[in-house]
Amino acid sequence: MEQSKIKELVAQMTIEEKASFCVGKDFWHVQGLERLNIPSVMLTDGPHGLRKQGGSGDHLGLGSSNPAICFPAGCATASSFDPEIAELVGTELGKLCQAEDVSTILGPAMNIKRSPLCGRNFEYLSEDPLVSSRMGAGEIKGIQGQNVGACPKHFLANNQELYRQTSNSVVDEQTLREIYLASFEGAVKEAKPWTIMCSYNKINGTYASENKPFMTDVLRGEWDFDGYMMTDWGACDDPVDSVAAGMDLCMPGPVKDNVRRIKEAAENGTLDMEKLDRAVERVLNIVFKYAENHDKDATYDFEAGHEAARKVETESAVLLKNEDAVLPLKDGEKIVYIGEYVKNPRYQGGGSSHIHPYKVTGIWDVVGEKEGVSFAKGYDLKAETIEKEAAVEAARAADKAVIFAGLPDSYETEGLDRTNMDLPAYQNELIAAVAAAQPNTVVVLHNGSPVSMPWIDGVKGVLELYLGGEAVGLATADLLYGKVNPSGHLTETFPIRIEDTPTYPYYGVEKDDVKYREERMVGYRYYETMKRPVLFPFGYGLSYTTFSYDNLRLDREAMTDAEELGVSVDVTNTGSVAGKALVQVYVAPCATGEIRPLRELRAFEKIALEPGEKKTVTVTLSKRAFAEWNTDIHDWYVPSGTYRIQVGTSAANIVAEKPVDVTSTRMLKPKFTVNTALGEIMAHPVGKQVLMQVMGPMMGGDKAAALGGEGDVASDDNALSQEAMMATGMAMPLRAMVSFAPDASIEQMEQLIAAINNAIENA
Ligand code: BGC
Fold it and tell me: pLDDT tens digits, residue range 250-284?
């Protein structure tokens, strides 16, 4: 609907009616108004299936919902590293929304995986903002391609479940920009979501639902978000402050008190009427965008949806280990499938994302009839016991053993973080026992977040399914028997022990002020920079074939940060089966004297290759690939210097690299004082120029003289080396010169500083 018509509608509303549009009508609906022909539309979860509940519903997944396709959870889909796969999920979700008359689906969930322990990691996409953003964008495009709204959530810095409604995430500006905001930024700019959901927590003291700097200044002002902003369910602290800050819809409803408070504030002027009108206009804009495009005759093809869920999982599962080519399995081999998950797979997590599946296909439904295949229960999830002897006997009698293990439902759910990274002890015990009896043991994992693997050296194969959705058995059979070649890669690091993680030991303990002490060293940024060994690095994933990456070339050797860099590499399938290769392009920063992550993923592309086939992949890097957030200018800034462009098979394995010189087009204008260290002034080109004019003669001669000393102190055996003298001098502020040079005065130093600042300002 045209903007002018929407404004006309709002103009005809009473203040109370306007206020009511800023609060949900019920648990799942936006307010409607018959008098003005404004329909009441539905919003519901998300993010990897549609959870449409009848009646007023509940939001903890306790009540029943209509059957829907349960797609692989975000942890899995993201591992495809293929935005088109995320888009396929989105398209299917959008189609079902049309058939079920749902205007907006609450997803994708795009919070950064700050620690492997977060209870909702299974819904989230990555520890890396580029992956999160691009995969999130794929899902948003798919959903909205069906004329249904997407709702990326939970904005912002909501990375734990512990006290999620009241905790205060204390995050510095640079970290927010480079990691937590960046996780949403690309997706908002690229895919233009119709709505966004704020998180429950506070960010640096202000509730996300009242946080104008992020909700209005960044989202709308900088990233051009033009949809409406809703709260998470119950995240509204003060409805008036929320609307004033840029919140448009407080969910859920009906909350008469919220309507009353907004109405009264608008009446008495505490809330600008303009701000209230603006919120209602934004909501109506999206309501009509859906209503005018709703296909009342839409139906959904559930069988096609089930097949789509299978395809997504086959593209997403990650082959972590495959020694002696234990996989793929061959028809006719004697294989024992072990574990309760063989017949009763774990394919989704708990909480608001919980889907009532259309149907579930487990591995046994697919392979149970195959010749030579047998089953041993191995463990009982409920009783937490194992049937070790029977499983070991069966394993011994077979050619290969495939154990299905994983985290039980209660381990991974909304509202609760894990306290450790371990599989249940009984499962670890069973795997070790089977592996000791059968050298060809493969472990297949159902989990939404990394687990420790104490038995890793004893098994030959590991296939990480994550939470693979309702068609997980079909996909698993495709992968285990080589019908489809695994091509998923980890979007998060698998640490060896929880003690190795960047947030240890704070994570899960802090519940009021949650201090993001690790700053931008999240995930692989930490492990690579700090040189910590890991179990499996970010970006890792095997295939039944092999690839080579050759002839890395850059289309220039030097550039400014206003120019773009073309990066090409030839990828060849060097094995004997078709497969998909993932090209990961990292940028290693120039030396600046500050600690930046050792390398950061700046581009990726997945390609299909027949055996022997070679393709050239070209990606383009622009300013942001080199930039960091500079807190002096509150903007992206590229320190000038030599950067290295690296192609890796994971964050830990770089197979080719080339340097490029990048020059900043922006000169920083720091304000120096007499207490600034000389070294800092010397590091600035203009500062150095002015300083050298005045002090050059002294510095060019005897270094000691530059420090105000007399004579050749460096000739004394116990005296400082030339290098140490220089370092000491560079650490000295101009103010200290006065203490060493009898004729110098503080006024002279202040004049010098003023001249330097002036020259910088006018440069
Ligand atoms: C969750 C959201 C969800 C909402 C509605 C909240 O508890 O945090 O992700 O969309 O409930 O179910």
Answer: 999 999 999 999 999 999 999 999 999 999 999 99
Q: Looking at the structure, do residues 623 and 693 belong to the same domain, yes or no?
A: no
Catalytic hit among 45, 128, 232, 248: 232
Judgement on whether residues 281 and 389 belong to the same structural domain of the protein: no
Please state the pTM of the whole predicted model.
Answer: 0.95
Q: Which range marks the domain in which residue 722 is found?
A: 678-761
Same domain flag for 518 and 559: no
Pocket test of ligand 1: the residue of 62, 414, 417 to mutate, having most ligand atoms within 8 Å of its CB, is 414
Q: In terms of Cα–Cα distance, which of 582, 462, 448, 438 is closest to 124?
A: 448
Find the helix packing angle between 273-291 and 3-11, rounded to 10°. Answer: 120
Q: Has 257 been annotated as catalytic?
A: no
Those residues with Cβ within 8 angstroms of residue 332's Cβ, 6 or more apart along the chain or in another chain = 371, 372
Number of compact structural domains in the chain: 4
Closest residue by Cα to residue 355 from 105, 111, 165, 160: 105
Strands 149-150 and 195-197: unpaired
Residue 567 and residue 507 share a domain: no
> Residue-wise over 272-310: b if at least 16 C-beta within 10 A, else e?
eeebbbebbbbbbbbbbbbbeebeeebebeeeebbebbb
Same domain, 63 and 101: yes
Q: Using a 6 Å CB cutoff, which residues line ligand 1?
A: 45-46, 59, 106, 153, 232-233, 352
Question: Closest Cα partner for 235 from 219, 255, 216, 252?
Answer: 252
pLDDT of residue 62: 58
Same domain, 51 and 103: yes
pLDDT < 70: residue spans in the chain: 55-63, 697-719
Domain boundary among 606, 629, 663: 663
Environment class of 213 (CB within 10 Å of its CB; exposed 0-12, middle 13-18, buried 19+):
middle
DSSP 13-42: S-HHHHHHHTB-SSSSB---BGGGTBPP-B
Q: Is residue 297 part of a domain?
A: no
Query: What is the predicted pLDDT for the residue at 744?
Result: 85
pLDDT per residue as tens digits for the range 160-199: 999 999 999 999 999 999 999 999 999 999 999 999 999 9
